[in-house]
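[step 3/7] fold_predict: job queued, chain A
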Amino acid sequence: LIDKAEIAGDILTLLFNSDVDLYKQTLKARPISVKLKLVPGKENILTMYAENQGSIPPNTAIMRIKNEESYHKILLSADDKNNCSVILKLK
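[step 4/7] structure written:
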C-alpha cells in the first residue's frame, strides 16, 4: 500500500477476513507491505477503513497485489462514511 497521490497524512486500518492486519498506519512515500494468505475455495475480503482523511480528502491508497505470475494495481478510497472492500479468490 502506498498513498495514491500527494502524501497527505492518510491513516488507515486494514482488515483481512475480519482480522486486523494493519492498525492505524499512516501512508507514506515508502510502501507498506503486508503478506496475506488466501483461503482456497473462499471469498477472501480485504477491507480498508479510513481512520482520517489526511489533509486532502478522501483517504486513498494504491494496493499492488503480487503473486508468482503477475501483479495488479487497485485503487482504494474511503472516507468518514464509506469504507472500501476487495474480494480476492484463488483461481
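[step 5/7] annotate
The CA atoms of residues 32 and 45 lie 19 Å apart.
The radius of gyration is 13 Å.
exit 0
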